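Input record (one chain):
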Amino acid sequence: MGWEALAQWGDDAARIERLTGGVANDVWSVRVNGQLAVGRLGVRSDADLAWETGLLQHLDREGLTVPVPIPTVDGRLFVDGLVVMTYLEGGPPETQADWRRVAGTLRELHRLTQGWPQRPGWRSSTDLLHAETGTKIDLGAMPAESVVRCRAAWARLAGRQTCVVHGNPNNPGNVRMTADRVALIDWDESHVDVPVLDLVLPGNAADLDDDAHDIAAQASAAWEAAVCWDDEYAVKRLAEVRAV
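The corresponding structure, as predicted from the sequence alone:
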């Protein structure tokens, strides 16, 4: 159906302008019920979108500032791959103090989602010690030596408690800050994994000790290499993963 589905949010619902930052989705500012909002159109399954919208509702109820799904006229949270969410004001983190606030928000996310079920079709980094595929990842498409390096990095996370990770919080464009709150946006990469993967932040703002930071940085680089394989960014990230 495409953007025609926006009519499900009311007769006055309309697109305004395309927003930058979305890679896998078509993201626009929209007007719904006279209010500015964000519409995201993609190809995720209904099960996947039910997981994401349910997560965002939970986090909102628990006091985190996140884009909250706006229901259609008949109460649905998504229609044919389209989700409409609240628009969040704010700017990106700029100082080390800003990034420390981001780290605190991420740790609260992790606390609130311990034991959360995995996003449908996804795998965690430690699942990929044995599995070959999961959502965007296909280890069979990577050179065998590269897979060995990635799995060696992920093996250092084995046995740790898991929770929801945002998936890309070190991108300043995924953070909207004001003086009194930190908002995380773009939850398209969120899934259940080991929380330290979210804490590889600029300037080590999460204050990880040397060993913890090395483990997290290696595992994160391996994850991004596998997710993006084999574009230029993936090759660059893989170069950061030590040979075994």
